[in-house]
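Hi P.,

Sorry for the delay on this. The queue was packed all week, but I finally got your sequence through. Input first:
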Amino acid sequence: MYCSMKEEEKVIEFSEGSRQMEVNYNPHLSKICEETQQLLIMGYAVPKIIVQLVTKAKRFSKQARELDQIAQFHNTIGDRMIPSQRPMMLDTAVALSKLVSEQHDVVWSHSEEVQVYISSLKSKVTDLAKQNSYLSSLHLAISQKVCNY
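Then the structure:
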């Protein structure tokens, strides 16, 4: 199995056709990190190239998990929105999508830039989540008033 970091790829992008947000972090890297750690604990010699790969993979794994949470939120928020309220959240949702579509230079090899980018994405995700929660609570309050009338 060949496994690489692809350090010069965008950290996150939309999949072709489905508009699903995907993180460009090889999931096999986590498994390699775990297995390498086990081998080292048991006292086996691990080739230097593997140790270097694991060191890089560990450095980026936290950021990959954060980006994965953002992507998961983006890919499922539509299911949690009340359909009639979607147009009210369109501007915020478009701003989040725009951050992903227009990023070109945010790659794994620039760790500090990735962290700043994650903060920007989290801010938009928080805005969208708050807006959805607020509108849902208003919808529920109005529904209860109508039912009790």
